Amino acid sequence: MITGKIKIKNKVGLHARPASLFVKEAKKYDSTIRVKYDDRDINGKSILEVLSIGARHGSEIEIIIQGAEEKIAYEALKNLVDSFEE
Fold first, then answer.
1. What tens digit of pLDDT does each residue of 49-80 get?
2. Superfamily for 2-82?
3. Per the residue annotation, which of 9, 15, 34, 57 is the catalytic one?
4. I need a surface site. Which of 5, 18, 20, 46 has the fewest CB within 10 A?
5. At what angle do helices 16-26 and 70-82 cross, to 10 degrees?
6. Which residues, 6 or more positions from 43, have their beta carbon under 8 angstroms from its beta carbon?
7. Known catalytic residue: 15?
């Protein structure tokens, strides 16, 4: 299992486009992907759940990945979220 915190740098947070890109990337991996934000723990492969957490600019999300491709998935998702600087 790999866990890590990622800061949301996007000025409008994890809104529709970044959330959809996150989910699209997460679905590529044979791993369970969870996202924690505030007191919520959601499925990182569900667009509705990712949108529902409302992660804002400057906040941190925690990603928990468990499975065969956890290392690759974590790096890909971290790089993706880091690239959301609009």
1. 999 999 999 999 999 999 999 999 999 999 99
2. HPr-like (3.30.1340.10)
3. 15
4. 5
5. 160
6. 33, 34, 35, 49
7. yes
